[in-house]
Specification:
The chain is an alpha+beta fold. The chain is built from 4 helices and 5 strands; from the N terminus they run ααβααββββ. The longest helix has 23 residues.
């Protein structure tokens, strides 16, 4: 078989393979969260979110909407040095993010079915 024919068969198979993948995976919300930071944020985002009294007082006193937590969980950074990933029964994570002029840090208790924002405070420059 000539090289041109082999190349044509290869291209045709590649084309149909891509079309089949697009058909099966096109409607699904698939994501590639491979970094530890992205995995922790995704894990917390999909759980029921609760707020402690301390965190609610912080949000009220600083006139910050609790929807800011969703923004932080979308693009925030997990500080694994401060976090306690071996805590029982729930892991404790410190996540910071927000607008540049007001960076918030959240202390989140990540349990099996819920994620509770324990504390929130404005992060000071180090």
């Amino acid at each position: 078989m000539k090289f041109v024919h082999r190349l044509a068969y290869y291209g045709l198979g590649l084309f149909f393979g891509i079309v089949i993948l697009l058909f099966f995976l096109g409607g699904k919300k698939t994501s590639c969260d491979y970094s530890p930071n992205a995995r922790v944020l995704k894990n917390i985002k999909i759980k029921e979110r609760k707020f402690s009294e301390s965190s609610m007082n912080f949000f009220r006193s600083n006139n910050i909407d609790t929807s800011m937590v969703s923004e932080i969980l979308k693009d925030g950074d997990v500080d694994f040095n401060k976090s306690n990933t071996d805590a029982e029964p729930c892991n404790i994570y410190f996540i910071s993010g927000g607008p540049e002029n007001k960076v918030l840090e959240l202390e989140i208790e990540n349990c099996d079915s819920t994620a509770t924002i324990q504390k929130a405070y404005i992060k000071k420059d180090e």
